[in-house]
Amino acid sequence: MTDFRTRTPDEVAELGSRLRALDWSWQFDEIPAIAEQFGWRVVSTSEDEDWVMLDTGLGLASGKVFADDGDVERVQVSASTIGPDTSETHTLVQQAYAAMAARLVATLGAPSAETTEDNAQLRWAGSGSTLILAALARSITLTLASDEWLELFDKGAELSRRGQL
Fold this sequence. Notes:
With 165 residues, the protein is α+β, with helices and mostly antiparallel strands. Helix content is 35%, strand content 28%. The protein has 4 helices and 8 strands. It has helices at residues 9-20, 31-38, 87-108, 147-161, and strands spanning 41-45, 51-55, 63-68, 71-78, 113-115, 120-125, 129-135, 140-146. Helix 1 packs across helix 3 (87-108). The radius of gyration is 16 Å and the shape is globular.
C-alpha cells in the first residue's frame, strides 16, 4: 500500500467555497490573519516577501501563498499528499480527483473550464480570481489564482506546448 493521503471530497468542497469567498485584493502582510482564519499555520516566509509556506493540515508544506510586490497572486493548498511515483499512486490520484471534482461541481456548479491533457484540471472563474482543482501525476492541488497571474501562466504554458519557450 502506498503512503498517499487525501482530504475528503467534502473537505475540498468546503475549502473551495471558502477560498472563492476571499476578497482577492489582499496583500502579503495579511497572510497570517487569513491563515489563522482557515486554521492554517505559517511555517516559513521568504526574506523578500514573495512567498509563505503553510501547514494546512497535510504537512509542513501543504500550502503556499505567492505574491509579487506585496500583492498576493495565488494560494495553493494540497488536496493530497505527494505519493510515490507508482501506478498505484497514479490510480489513487485519479480516483480521488474524480470524487473531489464531483463534489466541487455539486457545490459550486459547472466549471468554467476543463482540461484533460497531461494534468487534469477544473476551473471556476470568479470576480478577479479563479479556483483550480488540478490532478498531477502524484498529487492533487486546489489553487485560488488571480486572473492576471493565470492569464500569464496560460500564455507561458501555450508557448511551452508549442516549443517556443
